[in-house]
Amino acid sequence: MRPVRIWLYGLAAFVLLIVVVGGITRLTDSGLSITSWKPISGVLPPLNQTEWEAEFEAYKQIPQYTVINSWMSLDDFKFIFFWEWFHRLVARFLGVLFIVPFAIFLFQKRLPRKLAWPLFGLFVLGGFQGALGWWMVSSGLTELTSVSQYRLAAHLTAASLLFIALIYVARSLSPGRVLGRVTRFHMTTAVLLLVSLILQIGAGAFVAGLDAGMGYQTWPLMDGAIIPGGLFAMDPAWRNLFENALTVQFIHRGIAYLIVAFVGYLIWRRYRDGGFGGVHGWLPRIGAIVLLQVGLGIATLLMSVPIGLAVGHQALAFMLAGLSIAYIADMHRVR
């Protein structure tokens, strides 16, 4: 099963690459530069001046150009076009990287039926992720000047689920026996941690979708207070959770604090109960990455969201979720 494991880890790494390219696409405001979805012919970029001018003319018809980017020249447009085209290209290539080895492994009878069907389900999830991407882009083509933060959150969260599933299956196929004692408490708290990380990734997507990181760039205070005013300025109140940039950033910070406290508690509890031997060796690694992620998030905010730090912050969130699901997979292997 070693070739299958390598393939699955490679797919997970490629999903992470797509997330990084997607983050750059978002941060350069490139996501609406291609106004149509052509799954096959869209592989090729414009190849001559006429095709470039046709793409640029299509972009000129959407609100982002007329309201924000009417200053753009064709050369400026080519820059943002590249990132959206590249993002779509690597996403398409993920499908090829999945289906070709999958077919080969089936032919070689390396995949038992109990594994083949779940893996095919992941392929379907990957295709659904592509459809979600276009659904997200389409939200910014008629009335909005950027994509809907709701659809962005759905797109990024689905990517995190695909990444986590690939890591889980790959880790579950690892040979050998995992040592350690696993209780219901260990499994339950690890699952709660993973769920909180997925929620945080979704919350981060709302921050990105509203450009909420561009405001309130102080820490630990926010708008001069620990709990700022105006958190529920919108009516009805639920809209503040998803549409009020102040509230959305406050929620993202709050979830981060809860994760830090929860991981700290888990490490303290494990230290008291016998240390970090065997399967529980994952916990100190998770704790270290959590602290790094918090520091990266604060630096990203204080430095006005530079692309490098912001993309690193997003990628590290996925890596942290990957560590958590590996911990869960290894605990299942102990049983």
UniProtKB/TrEMBL annotation:
It catalyses: Fe(II)-heme o + 2 A + H2O = Fe(II)-heme a + 2 AH2. Pathway: Porphyrin-containing compound metabolism; heme A biosynthesis; heme A from heme O: step 1/1. One of its GO terms (biological process) is heme A biosynthetic process. GO terms for molecular function: heme A synthase activity; metal ion binding; oxidoreductase activity, acting on NAD(P)H, heme protein as acceptor. Keywords: Cell membrane, Heme biosynthesis, Iron, Membrane, Metal-binding, Oxidoreductase, Transmembrane, Transmembrane helix. The keyword Calcium does not apply. The chain crosses the membrane at residues 7-27, 89-107, 119-137, 149-169, 190-210, 250-268, 288-305, 311-329. Signal peptide: none annotated. GO terms for cellular component: plasma membrane. InterPro entries: COX15/CtaA_fam, HemeA_Synthase_type2. It is found in: Cell membrane; Membrane. It is an enzyme of class 1 (oxidoreductase). Its EC number is 1.17.99.9. Pfam families: COX15-CtaA (PF02628). Heme binds at H252, H313. Its cofactor is heme b. It is a multi-pass membrane protein. The keyword Flavoprotein does not apply. Interacts with CtaB. Belongs to the COX15/CtaA family. Type 2 subfamily. Catalyzes the conversion of heme O to heme A by two successive hydroxylations of the methyl group at C8. The first hydroxylation forms heme I, the second hydroxylation results in an unstable dihydroxymethyl group, which spontaneously dehydrates, resulting in the formyl group of heme A. HAMAP family: HemeA_synth_type2 (MF_01665). This is Heme A synthase. The gene is ctaA.
